[in-house]
């Protein structure tokens, strides 16, 4: 027996002349059997027919990239982490996984990966607000139009693979097209009944348990997975616990129609605090956390239904309906390192930190989000003369409802209190796109355009003595894009693209609490890239891209040190180069012993404020501001023109080297390097007392993983070490200092039968 490579090629060597029967099987295809009379050096071709055309189209509809072969026609940078890479890497969380992709910067928060802060090509990673997160091609975040902050993120165990799209192809999705699209792909039901059980344990009270079952009987397929994870994070008093349930069912109505339904449930309970440490607190205990009364609870229910209709051999219609409900209750005694605590001198019995655990109250930020949408997409292929056309058109109707309440409790452990805020916010979006890929000889030209129209409404129910105040406004934007790919050189694709970057404002940014409308433009940019994907021979892949993201209006969230308002930020420029490579000696030399190498490198020499720019940090928030650019003290605000953007390290590098042995052993060592960066727009080097200003020094981590797969037992044993040398770094200063994850040693076993 043998397995084909990505192109479908396979080889049986040293066979004698004679008659042979060859049987070929592939997922979602019927088996093909061919009897041949073998001659010396003879080649044959075997064709597989789909079991059900609609089922195969359904699988492809969830992917941004499609097949390996279709990459030659994609006019933009796209990278994928496949199931085997995620499995063998034993990644602890998405922060670790996404660092394996070039151009992606992930900032840790609580050390458990519950809320990864993701930036792409120099965008600020805070709450992943500039990144479009998808699950199977559909919106994952709870309010991508009205509040794109990610306080919810599923565990990595839910997914089979990850795709990151950074080029002009983003216009087919939206609304965010400013930085990139991350698509998490869930597994499909297996062909044969399969049961999986996984148990892991480690230091810092870590436990991870998961079980799943799936199979296909006739036209029906199903899969169910459950995962529970718990442990301590990067600081004291985190006590994180999460529960994740995923189910998917597929049903082939006939060979041209298929239904797929998906239901998910996620819950998190932790003592996660919002604030970071002050400079003095960090020096005394880098992993300390005095706010043990803080409590964070989330629940999310998600449902999606997909219908695929193959109208003709060249036309298919995919219709998705999706909905999710997300609830977040965050009770906290501090929201940043300037509050020690937040009810100080507001509650009469809260006079100092000495009262923190006795008479100081607590604030509850209670949020409920409901999102619902429908999105049909039509795909057609046809020829016009010598030009093959791939036509795509789709539209989306999407609604979000936010219910936001703040309650102030009297005691540290209160879970109710006096209502201080009660806001109802709605976003109703209508969007559509059209795109056509013209394929002529070795060229693929892909022009397209997307239109977004968003209606915002905000109601403050407490205003005007309880009668309320409501405000409305509308934002609309045309988002064009164009890409070209050339594949005339063997195993090589050269591509280039340009598109309009767009990120809509939040509801609260354009409608005030009193019902007024704020003149805040959408975040806009022009994004350009030129790159190449090369596969010179089997087992060796390289991709390299030059990019330039030119913002004419980047919306800048003021740091905590400078206030909380959002402003028209003006011009910024992010420009650089990214490179990724993969080498497998076993594939190159056709041997079962495999030495392999992986690398993802990003170089961002330019990430700066342009035009006339003033810092969001003024003397009103921090007296006598020192302006590093002029080396003078200002009584108002500093000019930051030419300053580097916060949280935009110049260099990112993740590289690994490993070895796979035919008996089932696989082991590798990984190095992660994150370059020096600034935590504020002043580019301050020395920290201030609350630690919200100051540089974040370069960081280097070493990780290692070993797997041993026992085929006859269908069991894999594994051990992994993260941050082997237990280095402690500062990873965030936005709300005070947050430390990096400590050394984590974990071991586990996975059984499949």
Write up this protein.
There is one protein chain. The two termini are 21 Å apart. The protein folds into 2 domains: 1-49, no CATH class; 53-747, Beta Barrel (Maltoporin, Chain A). The protein has a 22-stranded antiparallel β-barrel. A 5-stranded mixed sheet has the order 3-8-9-6-7. It is built from 6 helices and 41 strands. Helix content is 5%, strand content 52%. The model is unreliable at 561-565 (pLDDT under 50). The longest helix is centred in the N-terminal third of the chain and has 9 residues, at 53-61. It has 753 residues and is mainly beta.
Strand and helix layout:
Layout: E1 18-24, E2 32-38, H1 53-61, E3 78-81, H2 83-89, H3 94-98, E4 104-107, E5 117-120, E6 131-135, E7 138-139, E8 161-165, E9 180-185, E10 194-202, E11 206-217, E12 220-231, E13 240-254, E14 257-270, H4 279-284, E15 295-312, E16 315-332, E17 362-384, E18 387-409, E19 418-440, E20 443-460, E21 469-486, E22 492-503, H5 507-510, E23 523-537, E24 540-553, E25 555-557, E26 566-568, E27 572-584, H6 585-588, E28 594-609, E29 614-618, E30 625-627, E31 632-634, E32 637-639, E33 651-660, E34 665-674, E35 677-678, E36 695-696, E37 699-710, E38 715-722, E39 730-732, E40 738-739, E41 744-752
Parallel strand pairs: 6-9
Antiparallel strand pairs: 1-2, 3-8, 4-5, 6-7, 8-9, 10-11, 10-41, 11-12, 12-13, 13-14, 14-15, 15-16, 16-17, 17-18, 18-19, 19-20, 20-21, 21-22, 22-23, 23-24, 24-27, 25-26, 27-28, 28-33, 29-32, 30-31, 33-34, 34-37, 35-36, 37-38, 38-41, 39-40
């Amino acid at each position: 027996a043998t397995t084909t490579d990505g192109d479908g090629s396979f080889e049986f060597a040293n066979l004698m002349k004679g008659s042979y029967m060859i049987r070929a099987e592939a997922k979602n295809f019927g088996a093909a059997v061919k009897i041949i009379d073998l001659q010396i050096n003879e080649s044959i071709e075997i064709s597989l027919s789909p079991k059900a055309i609609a089922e195969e189209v359904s699988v492809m509809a969830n992917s941004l990239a499609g097949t390996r072969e279709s990459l030659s026609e994609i006019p933009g940078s796209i990278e994928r982490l496949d199931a085997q890479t995620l499995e063998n890497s034993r990644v602890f969380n998405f922060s670790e996984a996404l660092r394996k992709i070039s151009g992606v910067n992930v900032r840790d928060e609580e050390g458990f990966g519950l809320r990864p802060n993701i930036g792409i090509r120099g965008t600020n990673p805070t709450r992943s607000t500039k990144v479009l997160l998808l699950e199977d091609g559909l919106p994952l975040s709870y309010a991508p139009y009205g509040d794109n902050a990610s306080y919810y993120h599923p565990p990595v165990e839910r997914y089979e693979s990850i795709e990151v799209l950074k080029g002009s192809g983003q216009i087919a999705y939206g609304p965010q097209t400013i930085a990139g699209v991350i698509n998490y792909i869930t597994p499909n039901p297996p062909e044969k009944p399969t049961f999986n059980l996984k148990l892991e344990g480690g230091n810092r009270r870590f436990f991870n348990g998961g079980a799943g079952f799936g199979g296909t009987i006739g036209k029906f397929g199903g899969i169910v997975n459950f995962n529970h994870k718990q442990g301590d994070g990067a600081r004291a008093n985190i006590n994180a616990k999460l529960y994740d349930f995923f189910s998917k069912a597929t049903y082939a109505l006939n060979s041209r129609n298929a239904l797929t339904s998906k239901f998910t449930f996620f819950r998190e309970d932790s003592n996660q605090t919002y604030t970071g440490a002050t400079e003095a607190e960090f020096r005394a205990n880098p992993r300390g956390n005095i706010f043990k009364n803080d409590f964070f609870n989330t629940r999310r229910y998600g449902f999606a239904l997909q219908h695929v209709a193959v109208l003709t051999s060249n036309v298919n219609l995919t219709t998705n309906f999706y909905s999710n409900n997300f609830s977040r209750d965050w009770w906290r005694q501090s929201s940043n390192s300037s509050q020690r605590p937040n009810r100080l001198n507001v509650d009469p019995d809260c006079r100092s930190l000495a009262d923190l655990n006795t008479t100081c109250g607590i604030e509850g930020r209670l949020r409920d989000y409901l999102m619902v949408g429908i999105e049909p997409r039509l795909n057609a292929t046809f020829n016009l003369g010598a030009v093959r056309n791939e036509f795509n058109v789709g539209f989306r109707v999407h609604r979000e409802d936010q219910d936001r309440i703040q309650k102030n409790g009297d005691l540290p452990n209160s879970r109710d209190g006096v209502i201080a805020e009660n806001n109802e916010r709605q976003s109703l979006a209508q969007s559509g796109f059209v795109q056509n890929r013209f394929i002529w000889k070795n060229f693929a030209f892909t022009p397209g355009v997307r239109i977004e129209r968003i209606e915002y409404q905000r109601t403050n129910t407490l205003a005007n003595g309880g009668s309320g105040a409501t405000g409305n406004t509308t934002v609309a934007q045309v988002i064009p894009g164009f890409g070209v790919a050339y594949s005339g050189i063997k195993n090589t694709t050269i591509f280039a693209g340009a598109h309009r970057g767009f990120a809509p404002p939040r509801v609260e940014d354009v409608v005030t609490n009193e019902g007024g409308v704020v003149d805040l433009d959408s975040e806009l940019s022009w994004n350009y890239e030129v790159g190449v994907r090369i596969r010179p021979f089997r087992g060796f892949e390289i991709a390299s891209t030059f990019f330039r993201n030119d913002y004419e209006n980047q919306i800048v969230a003021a740091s905590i040190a400078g206030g909380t308002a959002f402003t028209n930020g003006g011009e910024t420029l992010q420009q650089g180069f990214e490179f990724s490579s993969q080498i497998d000696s076993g594939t190159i030399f056709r041997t079962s012993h495999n030495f392999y190498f992986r690398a993802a490198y990003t170089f961002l020499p330019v990430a700066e404020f342009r035009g006339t720019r003033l810092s969001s940090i003024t003397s009103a928030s921090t007296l006598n501001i020192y302006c590093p650019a002029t080396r003078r003290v200002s009584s108002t605000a500093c000019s930051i023109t030419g300053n580097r953007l916060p949280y935009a390290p110049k260099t990112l590098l993740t590289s690994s080297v490993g070895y796979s042995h035919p008996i089932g052993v696989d082991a590798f060592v990984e190095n992660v390097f994150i370059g020096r960066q600034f935590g504020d727009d002043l580019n301050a080097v020395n920290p201030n007392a609350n630690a919200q200003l100051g540089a974040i020094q370069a960081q280097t981590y070493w990780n290692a993983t070993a797997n041993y797969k026992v085929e006859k037992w269908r069991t894999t044993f594994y051990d992994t070490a993260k941050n082997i040398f237990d280095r402690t770094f500062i990873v965030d200063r936005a709300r005070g200092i947050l430390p990096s994850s400590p050394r984590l040693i974990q071991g586990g076993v996975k059984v499949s039968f």
